Amino acid sequence: MKIRIHETINDPGRIGGHSEDRFGWNDDSVFVIDGATGIAEHQVMTGHSSDAAWLAGLAADSFTQAGHETISQTVETLNSRARDLYFKEAGTDDLPRYAWPAAAFQMLRIEGETLVTYGLGDSRLFLISDDTGEVFETSALKQNRDREAESARAHLQRIGGFRGEKDIKNDPQTLAALRTGRSRHNTPDGNIFTLGLVPEAAGRIVREETGLTAPVHGLLCSDGFAALCDLYDAFTPQQLIRAAHDQGLVALIERLRTIERSEDPEGERFPRFKVSDDATCVAFSID
Q1: Nearest CA-CA partner of 141 in 82, 194, 181, 94
Q2: What stretch of H or E contains 230?
Q3: pLDDT band at 86 (very low <50, low <70, confident <90, very high)
Q4: pLDDT band at 165 (very low <50, low <70, confident <90, very high)
Q5: What share of the chain has pLDDT > 70, as a percent?
Q6: Would you say 21 and 33 are in contact if contact means Cβ atoms under 8 Å apart?
Q7: Which SUPFAM superfamilies does its entry note (predicted)?
Q8: pLDDT tier, 149 (very low <50, low <70, confident <90, very high otherwise)
Q9: Which backbone phi and psi does 105 adopt, to 5 degrees?
Q10: How many Å apart are CA 78 and CA 72, to the nearest integer?
Q11: Res. 187: pLDDT tops 80
């Protein structure tokens, strides 16, 4: 089996801003990485657009260069290295957990004759069989979108919408709630595990066999791109794959931003924490 990359896109959520997402591939795998929006008081890793962008770049390099070790071994090594580099740059290991950089990832890997996906967090895989039309779609963090939307709805109702802001984390009460939630990541008290500074998170990677065989077409994308299907109901999973490969990713980004910035700029129809999130996608096939 051979991976063929058809198109990629990485569109920042803020016009003129920097995306914290990354993507990549090698002979055996293709992946997307979604850096978590920072909610710390200050940035630690200088020379990068954000701490999350630094982490996502480090992860992309690790996944691209990974040999035949297991994904859990790669992630454990990555998180250990990130932890050492981050605390060294910070000059302390006593920073609050909500300040630590984090990232989600989803990967599709060829293992013999089997297509296997791995992930942490809420990035997405959409895959369709060329022969049967059967669709496989997944995320390592299932059913999180509904919980997140309800939380965002409550905050937006309290503050009266975005009111021209790009996100709602500038509201002190919202920011406090986000920091409380982020502090539980990668702990026994939380249900979200990520790439970041906790090597033990490697033990929580979600592995699934897709049940599909080549030839297939697919998408790996951040939740910001998958919102077209998961939040805005503009496409079914099958339609999203077809549209990406037939119309191209630029057309889908344009549709995404129209919904967010023109049709629902206040989050009334589709509650969310940001008007627009970074949206990243890799369109590929395997034959």
Answers
A1: 194
A2: helix 223-230
A3: very high
A4: confident
A5: 100
A6: yes
A7: PP2C-like
A8: confident
A9: -150, 155
A10: 10
A11: yes
User: Which two structure tokens, joined as six digits, stand for 182?
Assistant: 């982020």
Q: How far apart are CA 163 and CA 143, in angstroms?
A: 28
Q: Which long-range contacts (CB under 8 A, 24 or more apart) does 265-269 make?
A: 265/162, 266/156, 266/161, 266/162, 266/163, 267/152, 267/153, 267/156, 267/161, 267/162, 268/156, 268/161
| Tokens of residue 48, six digits | 């990068």
Question: Is residue 257 classed as helix, strand or coil in its secondary structure?
Answer: helix
* Domains in the chain, CATH or no CATH each: 9-125+137-214+259-281 (3.60.40)
Please write the tens of the pLDDT for every residue from 26-61: 999 999 999 998 889 899 999 999 999 999 999 999
The span from the CA of 282 to the CA of 24, in Å, is 8
Amino acid (1-letter code) at residue 227: A
Are 96 and 111 in contact by the 8 Å Cβ rule? The answer is: no
Place of tokens 């919904």: 259
Beta-strand runs (E) in the chain: 3-11, 21-25, 29-35, 103-111, 114-120, 124-129, 135-138, 206-209, 216-221, 279-286
Closest CA relative to residue 205, chosen from 80, 91, 120: 120
User: Using an 8 Å Cβ cutoff, are 69 and 145 in contact?
Assistant: no
pLDDT tens, position by position, 197-207: 999 999 999 99
Question: Cα separation of 284 and 280, whole Å?
Answer: 13
232 close to 253: Cβ distance less than 8 angstroms: no
Instruction: Give the pLDDT band (50/70/90) at residue 189.
Output: confident
Banded model confidence at residue 143, pLDDT cuts 50, 70, 90: confident
> In this prediction, what percent of the chain has a pLDDT beyond 90?
81
